[in-house]
Amino acid sequence: MKRILNLEGAINLRELGGYPTKDGTTIKYNKLLRSGDISNLTGKSLSYLKNYGLRYVVDFRSNSEQQTWADKTADFYKIYSDPVYPLKGNGDKLAGIINHGDYSYLGMIYQSVVLDQHGQQAYKILFDLLLNNDQEHQALLFHCAAGKDRTGIGALLVLKALGVDDETITRDYLLTNLMYENRQTIEATLNNENGDQDINQMNMTKGDLDDITSVFKAIEHYYGTFDNYLDKALGIDKTKLNKLKAIYTE
């Protein structure tokens, strides 16, 4: 199976199946997709996604982004609006306490997102929908604009919950940088002159290893373990975690 799905009208659309876990299982194919903008999907691409089994689309973009570039609608999937921004602001303070400027621009933002009450609520909705996606031959796609930051954090949380090791999670995150080789297309599609300039800057910035490391550090600092973060921040206790693994790994 291909990791990067070059479907017409999609940005940075990727398969998350096939990754090994520490439990000796593998993430199932045709269950999980991560993506950037999907507002320009063609009929051919929609046909592919219908055959793939897509049923759930989770949109992490802001309300204004969703209005400007509305997701392509189809009768075989339902779109769930789940904006990660605007944050409440409490995550910024927590990230600042542990860093003192040690991390990159994106790294600090990522820490703020995973520690922020609103950011946590957005990813809690994702995990709730992941638990609903429990039927055979049905898949869930989550996305933002570039498929790098809000989606990257979502992929990190999901993959780590399913038992994928940190090195593999980091490699998956850095695959996004391949997308930036076609800079002209990215800027034309994602740079909204009238939109949130912070989001624009994030969309235009490549990711690096420190960005992911910063998330692991923030969670460990405030929650001790990742399982504790899942439970306390996202409402995924041991029973729900076992259900997630049953749905998405084999």
Plain-language structure description:
With 250 residues, this protein is of the alpha/beta class. The protein is 50% helix and 8% strand. Strands 1-2-5-3-4 form a five-stranded mixed beta sheet. The protein is globular, with a radius of gyration of 17 Å. The protein starts with 13 loop residues before the first strand and ends with a helix.
What is the name of the CATH class?
Answer: Alpha Beta
Proportion of strand residues: 5-15%
Please state the average pLDDT score: 88
Unreliable spans: none
The helix content, as a percent range, equals 40-55%
The CATH architecture term is Alpha-Beta Complex
List the helices and strands and how they pair.
Elements: E1 14-15, E2 32-35, H1 43-52, E3 54-59, H2 63-68, E4 78-81, H3 90-99, H4 105-115, H5 117-132, E5 139-143, H6 150-161, H7 166-174, H8 183-190, H9 197-204, H10 209-223, H11 226-234, H12 238-248
Helix pairs in contact: 3-4, 4-5, 4-10, 6-7, 10-11
